[in-house]
Write a structure and sequence with these properties.
The protein is of the alpha+beta class. The chain contains 5 helices and 10 strands, in the order βαββαβββαβββααβ.
Length: 268
């Protein structure tokens, strides 16, 4: 078997999340079926994480094991051609960026040392953003939201932002950085980078920040929420459509983003 890392993007509106579901469409299922058809062998893929229903990924990594007999000997450009063929077979909601060989023990999920999520908001009706950004109503106090968001940069217990029923064994996370910008008059972008995330964590954080941004709660309330270690202490979860997995990083010895050339849909 030859293990490969697959870099991809997807629009989550059409899917019930990344992970296979018994009776619902998922990104994992679509990718596995396309790979299995093209390689004429049952192919399983493992993702770098699990996005929920309606959540997008502007950058996502998965790994798969490809039978050696499916790889032509002495033929260059095989992975680029496979990338091109996959993009022709998969629905418009999924794009394969690249496929590249990695060591047999490289793991898309467990070897990732940081992941970044991006949450997009807009507060003016904009049909071009429908389903791709969360619409909020009214003005936002960005200064208050930034000060509250800065309180999230630490290594510790994020249980207040964890949806009940998750399979995680610990609620300890290491949040390395946060930012909140306003790239356009009616658009806002929140980014967070951490070693790991809890179920529904980013949407719970965003909902909490929105309560502060709308003046319903003070900046200091964020300290109380964190200390409570109780999901009921935080704000309501923000909508899924604003959330994107936007970056995943690995030790350079395992994988560097774009290693395989980012050929995308270009036929070699």
């Amino acid at each position: 078997m030859q293990r490969v890392f697959i870099e991809l993007q997807y629009n989550g509106r059409a899917f019930h999340g990344w992970q296979r579901q018994p009776e619902a469409r998922s990104v994992q299922q679509d990718l596995e079926e396309a790979l299995s058809t093209l390689l004429r062998s049952e192919i399983a893929v493992m993702g770098c994480g699990r996005t929920d229903a309606g959540v997008h990924a502007s950058y996502f990594v998965a790994h798969a094991d490809v039978p050696i007999e499916a790889i032509p000997l002495g033929e260059s450009g095989f992975w680029q051609r496979l990338t091109w063929k996959l993009n022709g077979m998969l629905a418009e909601e999924i794009a394969i960026l690249s496929i590249g060989e990695v060591a047999s023990n490289a793991h898309a999920r467990f070897d990732a040392h940081t992941r970044r999520y991006t949450y997009w908001l807009h507060n003016r009706k904009d049909p071009m953003l429908h389903g791709l950004s969360a619409r909020v109503f009214g003005d936002l106090d960005l200064s208050a939201m930034r000060h509250a968001a800065e309180k999230l940069v630490f290594r510790g217990d994020f249980a207040s932002f964890c949806k009940a029923g998750g399979a995680q064994q610990t609620t300890i996370c290491d949040v390395r950085s946060v930012s909140l910008t306003q790239p356009e008059f009616h658009r806002f972008c929140f980014q967070i980078t951490a070693d790991r995330y809890l179920r529904n964590m980013i949407r719970a954080i965003m909902g909490t920040l929105l309560d502060i941004g709308h003046g319903r709660k003070s900046v200091e309330w964020m300290d109380e929420v964190i200390a409570a270690a109780d999901r009921s202490a935080a704000g309501r979860s923000a909508p899924a459509e604003g959330l994107y997995l936007s970056d995943v990083r690995y030790p350079e010895a395992i994988w560097r983003r774009g290693d395989a050339g980012m050929t995308g849909g270009v036929k070699p």
